[in-house]
Sequence to fold (252 residues):
Amino acid sequence: MRISIIAGNWKMYKTDREAYELASFLKKSLKDVKSVKVVLCPPFTALSSVKRGIEGSDMFLGAQNMHWESEGAYTGEISASMLLSLGCQFVILGHSERRAYFGEKNQIVNLKLKAALENGLTPIVCVGERLEEREAGKTEEVVEDHITGAFEGVESEQAGKVVIAYEPVWAIGTGKTATPKQANDVHRFIREKLSALYSGEVAKNISILYGGSVKPENAKDLLSQADIDGALVGGASLKAESFEKIVRSGII
Ligand code: PGA
Fold:
């Protein structure tokens, strides 16, 4: 049984103080929620405050990116051990904004994925096609390329610890959501690929989240699909009220 994961990707929003306020508010408002794993992924600068804000709750802390080396002369970068030392348990990798604006290719995502796993962080690996790729009928090809690229050289025991987020790029921040069926079809395809790469057992245990304009209004329909195991929420995770509603939609 895969437990629902609802992760908030705060992107480059929230100062330290704002982040603390949102996190401590959510700690109170979601106190009764036990059957959903809630992960907050603030910017690096707010990780410590969010950790303080959720202290004593069942919520988890996640980062939005990391470097693959453990340390070194990499100005501006952050390593897995640094994230761990702040109490992070999750890290988002290969988000489409990283791929589009910072040149992250599969090979980089793969290095980061391996480093995260070696350090005991749970990676949330993002995959998904752009609009022109969907229109050209290439959704499965692109998603398969992202999956095989990210998992290259990852052993089956480790692969089972990864969380995947299917985020069609055309649905991110645009207000256009994939229909529950469109999303579930791709999720099923991803699970089939994982089954072929590893085994049915490994594929069955991997959580596949949907991301792209998830809102309180559409969360329930998306989350009720058989192969959708949670959501990676951007815009709607920045407000306590909408995020809380989405988390509650994941309660079974
Ligand atoms: P959105 O972002 O919910 O604002 O579309 C999702 C994401 O980028 O992870």
In short: The first helix runs from residue 16 to 29. The pocket of 2-phosphoglycolic acid is lined by residues 9, 167, 172-173, 211-214, 232-236 (CB under 6 Å).
